[in-house]
Amino acid sequence: MKNFLCFLFAALIFIFPVSAFAEDYNVGVLEQLNMNEDDYRKFVLDRRNSVGWDFLSHGDEKFIYYSSLVTMQMALNAGEINEIQLPEIVGEYFINSNPSAYTVACVSMVRPTYLAFGFLSSNTALRDRFNAALQTLREEGTLENLRLKYIENAHSEKIKFEKFDGAEKIRVALTGDLPPIDFVEADGTPAGYNVAIISEIAKKMKVNIEILNVEAGSRSANLASKRADAVFWYKVTRDLENQPDVPENVILSEPYYEWNKFLHVKRK
């Protein structure tokens, strides 16, 4: 798995050579659902001024949205953007996959950001069942063990899902944009920390899981259309009233992982 991602990152460098940068200093960001690029920039500047976010490496960034990590990397290699913004562990994985090509532009200190599951606001019962399973996994120490295994050590073992005859099926959507948190292997198999967690939740709930691969911008649409019952999400604060990437029809589970740094990654 890791070798495949390294190969992918390396291959994209040669397919998309670097061109001259535009006058704007452009930063690639995975698509946010509740605000456009200008609104996102205002949000970042507001947080920088109000709560001390050190989020900018250049001082006058223009944020550009992308629907996936792959398309964002293509834009970086083609010179369409100067750097990309990633959660710290994802940025480190990205750089370590090809250290000769990429380096850190800046480390952004922000308020804690949390991984969680997203659900339709009409599906509080499923959200509450996920919360109960997460609490059990936390108390047992399973969440911490999975964090060490899949995030700290980037474990590549294929994740198995138990099958429960006649049980409820729950469809969970992931973008695969956050290795080693979650990604999709070359053969289409979902992998990473998030997938390991949903496997453990399925055991606690005794349900069958179907993983759907979706783009960042279609998370809410997949819930609204009921193609997916739950979506891997992350939120910028525990305060449910301050969630710039969460539409009104979406509710979130309790968080199960957090970080407070983003890396801005650029080409060497």
The structure class reads alpha/beta
Q: Give the CA-based shape.
A: globular
Q: Strand portion, in percent?
A: 25-35%
Give the averaged pLDDT, no decimals.
85
From the N-terminal CA to the C-terminal CA, the straight-line distance is 25 Å
Q: How much helix, percentage-wise, in residues?
A: 25-40%
Low-confidence stretches: 9-22
**Count of distinct strands:** 11
Order of helices and strands: HEHEHEHEHHEEEHEHEEE
Radius of gyration: 18 Å
Number of helices: 8
Report the major sheet: 9 strands, mixed
Question: What's the topology here?
Answer:
Elements: H1 2-15, E1 25-30, H2 37-51, E2 61-66, H3 69-77, E3 83-87, H4 88-97, E4 102-120, H5 124-140, H6 142-152, E5 169-174, E6 183-184, E7 190-191, H7 193-205, E8 208-213, H8 219-224, E9 230-235, E10 250-252, E11 257-267
Parallel strand pairs: 1-2, 1-3, 5-8, 5-9
Antiparallel strand pairs: 3-11, 4-9, 4-10, 4-11, 6-7
Helix pairs in contact: 5-7
Please explain how this structure is put together.
This protein is α/β, with parallel strands linked by helices. It is 35% helix and 27% strand. The protein is built from 8 helices and 11 strands. The strands form 2 sheets. Strands 1, 2, 3, 4, 5, 8, 9, 10 and 11 form a 9-stranded mixed β-sheet that branches. The protein has a two-stranded antiparallel sheet with strand order 6-7. α2 (37-51) links the parallel β1 (25-30) and β2. α5 crosses α7. The protein is globular. The protein starts with a helix and ends with a strand.
